[in-house]
Amino acid sequence: MLYDTLEEYSKSGIYPFHMPGHKRNAKMVQPLSVTHDMTEVDGLDDLHCAGGILKAAMDNAADFFGADRTFFLVGGSTCGILASLAACTKRGDTIICARNCHKSVYNGISLLGLKPQFITPDTIPAPFSCYGSVNPTEVEQLLTKHPNTAAVIITSPTYEGIISDIRAISGICRRFGVVLIVDEAHGAHLGLFDGFPDGAVNCGADIVIQSTHKTLACLTQSALLHVCGNTVDSAKTAQKLAVFETSSPSYLLMENIDSTINLLQKNGSSYFAEYVNRLDNFSEKAKSLDSIDILFYGNDKDSEYGNIFDFDRSKLIISAVKKGYSGAQFSDILLNKYKIQVEMSSLNYIVAMTSYCDTDDGFMRLITALCEIDSGENGSFLPKTAAMPKSYTRAIEIYEAEELSKTKIRSEQAEGRICGEFIFAYPPGIPLAVPGEVITSELINVTAALKSAGVLIKNSVSGGGDYITTIDNKPFCEKNTLKT
């Protein structure tokens, strides 16, 4: 049944401007065979105690990416993030966390009983209104205020391709003796070849987690964890990976990671030269667009976004709000009329993910669709700026809130109560609210605006809809109990 559905979809003619990065382009991936679906028999090594062929493959990966030690991950970046936090902290530790981190970071905070201090990046101007870069000065200020911080964790690049100044942030963390963990799930391609900014491995991060299935030609769930320098205990990291990762790792996924790296070592320069040329040609054609904006493409100017340190141009962040279309409406038009599936839709924009496995025909289909939409009928959607709440007040820690009894109530009745669940705009899985935070009118209004624009909202306990789960025995927020 599932086979038939997937086969039908793969033959539908829908072009994938979304992950995985291989884009179903078989010539960019070494063929896999069921005869290679093995287990830890003699001669095939053991991922969680590697000393043979798997160690050699991971050592080659470390050399290719410039890390001191690299681990293959078959549970996606999620298991790497959980293991990294576990390896660098102990229960009750304070960590500094970018508010726009992925939900796996928040799950780690909850599981490990950590106390987060949030940095919320400023948003960039309309029509995109997404988070900008993490400000190194704010990292330094929080480390000064919380000198016993165990780790700093940030996401760079973001889902929208926004890159933070990792070199500056890593220098600050080093001065304070604090580990810097970078969730670079969307940046496995950075720093490898000309045309893209440096990645976090080359910029001084202590641990870097990358999803090779997002921007390289690997199968879904394939990822890497890089340890750089000697600040982090690699042996402890390996121990924690054995906790959060399956004890029966897929040899097909590991073979796929290794073969992808081998192909890039041989042909990566030419692959990426062709890729950059496709992006340049797309940008040149996008200059003709009047009412469709593309972040840092076409006529968009770098000078407009002072709170962006750098940008990963593999992401096409496209807004049609000037044409009167929300992100969800824009996405639907591309899919239903032009058979283009994008990665995600947000309030005012869509994200189209590209990779070196895209084709000239794929880019031509996209720019043709954009030009036709640009010159076509206008919609009625009015731009909105309240894409994310601007302030958060924590009454109790996340792990404390998750252990308390809860009640599901209607959203309009929840103001002033303490949230008992995660509320995500999904994708990308960045929380609008986390357990233990005070539910504000701003949160209720932002959530309602996102829903009305067609953005998918997921609640971790209640399931969403018109309800929010709140803490029972702390029904209302008392000012003298707040933790900020």
Short description:
The protein has 484 residues and is an alpha/beta fold. It contains 13 helices and 20 strands. Among the domains are: 27-261, Aspartate Aminotransferase, domain 2; 398-481, Molybdopterin biosynthesis moea protein, domain 2 (Alpha-Beta Complex), CATH 3.90.105.
Describe the structure.
The chain has 484 residues and is of the alpha/beta class. The chain is built from 13 helices and 20 strands. Among the domains are: 27-261, 3-Layer(aba) Sandwich (Aspartate Aminotransferase, domain 2); 398-481, Molybdopterin biosynthesis moea protein, domain 2, CATH 3.90.105. The strands form 6 sheets. The protein has a 7-stranded mixed β-sheet, sandwiched between helices. A 4-stranded antiparallel β-sheet has the order 10-12-15-14. Helix 3 (76-88) packs parallel to helix 4, helix 5 (136-145) runs parallel beside helix 6 (166-176) and helix 9 packs across helix 11. The longest helix has 36 residues, at 251-286. The radius of gyration is 22 Å and the shape is globular. Residues 475-484 have low confidence and may be disordered.
- Average residue-wise pLDDT: 93
CATH-level-4 superfamily name of the domain at 27-261: Type I PLP-dependent aspartate aminotransferase-like (Major domain)
Cα-to-Cα separation, first versus last residue: 50 Å
Helix content: 25-40%
How many runs of DSSP E, i.e. beta strands? 20
Q: Name the shape in a single word.
A: globular
Strand arrangement, major sheet: 2-9-8-7-5-3-4
| Count, helices | 13
Structural class: alpha/beta
Uncertain runs are: 475-484
Largest sheet: 7 strands, mixed
**Name of the top-level CATH class of the domain at 27-261:** Alpha Beta
Radius of gyration: 22 Å
* Strand proportion: 15-25%
CATH topology of the domain at 27-261: Aspartate Aminotransferase, domain 2
Report the CATH architecture of the domain at 27-261.
3-Layer(aba) Sandwich
